[in-house]
Amino acid sequence: MASIVKRKSKYSVVYDYTDENGKRRQRWETFSTNAEAKKRKKQIEYEQDSGTFFIPTAKTLNDLLDEYMSIYGVNTWAMSTYESRRGLARNYITPIIGDMLLSDITPRMMDKYYRDLLSVKTVSVNNRKPTSEYLTPHTVREIHKLLRSAFNQAVRWELISRNPVLNATLPKEEHKERDIWTAETLSKAMEVCDDPILSLALNLAFSCSLRIGEMLGLTWDCIDIAPQSIENGSAYIFVNKELQRVTRGALDDLSDKGVIKKFPPCIASTHTALVLKEPKTKTSIRRVYLPKTVAYMLVERKKEIDELMELFGDEYIDNNLVFCSSNGRPMESQVINRAFNKLIKENGLPHVVFHSLRHSSITYKLKLNGGDMKSVQGDSGHAQVKMVADVYSHIIDEDRCINAQRLEEAFYSSKTPDPVEDTEPKTADTAVTESDESDAAKILELLKNPETAALLKQLAKAL
């Protein structure tokens, strides 16, 4: 049996085992949250009861990564994270340093490995063209995060005495500003767009700050567009799932964790599957209120789908999706991206990616509400307000720059910065009267304070 022990802010799963020499030993495995520890405890107890339990005995880096992902990764990572890190290990760690013994891996060797990664060609994933020919500093840093966590686990398992990448030298990452459309450009794009599906996608992504997977995963049971709701401004969408294509290997490894629905494949031999899954973080689950214009667009879309259902009859596959093909099958992101790129090309619009509409949305809302990051976080689904601040604080800085310019124009650049005085001549009597009235007003104001009034009474008695 295993138990959970809380140590400061961490949770440790403690269990006994018999080593290869038949000696009874105790092991501690540490996790960040109680939920993660409970999952591992349950896994250990199940494997001990079924006779499938094993103690981590990794000798090479490949061994470590396999054990680390099967024990730690499957219990703590979302499916998209699991897939991404599996891909990093498969493409950039295993073929290069995977066969190295853990005992031979040194900090110096790992620094050289990180440096050499910048000259490694990027591997395409799911037949998508890489955005750069060689690995970027950002990807190298993602590989480092994976290895640092795996080596930390190896230290806890007593496979190595110290983490060889703890103080690694990493390539500098340059943060480029995202290219986004201004409100004027977006307005023009919406005006010239004659594709009703793309038009709805543009408006939803912008008005609701949606990720494309969240938008394509919208179902009608999570939308309130009742006439009364639209009229009183309370129409909304509820974001609680996303559409994503994942590998069947990841589905098997994670036992369909977080999957709400699996769609049947068009081609039986495909190694991937299209799924509706839970969002990556709890804060991504949110209600976003709709502008009336967008709510009415959804009303029209529902009418179109009802007509298609009537037209196709039993051949229509009703998945209850807002974005779907004419026969009801889910609509993948490349369909929207192709239509979006076509719109840009045909109308001479600045080239941006569809995801940038989410950034345009957040930018516009921050300017609209004077920098209220908490309310924008509610719409965007960021895990923390700090994430919004880190990425978008320059927008508020722009407004602060404008304030400085206005101060320069109104005060420093003005030829008469002092207040304009009343030029009407005053007589001595008038001046005295105004002075007396001013003094009387000040005394009355002082007497409103009980402590001041009591003090004045004491002074009067003393006099």
Task: Tell me what you see in this structure.
A 3-stranded antiparallel sheet has the order 1-2-3, covered by helices on one side. A 3-stranded antiparallel sheet has the order 4-5-9, with no helix packed on it. It has a 3-stranded antiparallel sheet with strand order 6-8-7. The chain has 17 helices and 9 strands. It is mainly α. The termini are far apart. It is 52% helix and 11% strand. It has helices spanning 34-50, 61-76, 79-97, 107-117, 137-156, 183-192, 196-208, 212-216, 227-231, 248-253, 292-312, 333-347, 356-368, 373-380, 385-412, 428-447, 450-462, and strands at 2-7, 10-18, 24-31, 223-224, 236-239, 242-247, 259-262, 272-277, 286-289. The longest helix has 28 residues, at 385-412. Helix 2 (61-76) packs across helix 5 (137-156). The protein has 4 domains: 1-50; 56-70 and 87-176, DNA polymerase, domain 1, CATH 1.10.150.130; 183-235 and 288-399, hpI Integrase, Chain A (Orthogonal Bundle), CATH 1.10.443; 242-278, no CATH class.
List the SSEs and their pairings.
Blueprint: E1 2-7, E2 10-18, E3 24-31, H1 34-50, H2 61-76, H3 79-97, H4 107-117, H5 137-156, H6 183-192, H7 196-208, H8 212-216, E4 223-224, H9 227-231, E5 236-239, E6 242-247, H10 248-253, E7 259-262, E8 272-277, E9 286-289, H11 292-312, H12 333-347, H13 356-368, H14 373-380, H15 385-412, H16 428-447, H17 450-462
Antiparallel strand pairs: 1-2, 2-3, 4-5, 5-9, 6-8, 7-8
Helix pairs in contact: 2-3, 2-5, 7-11, 7-13, 13-15
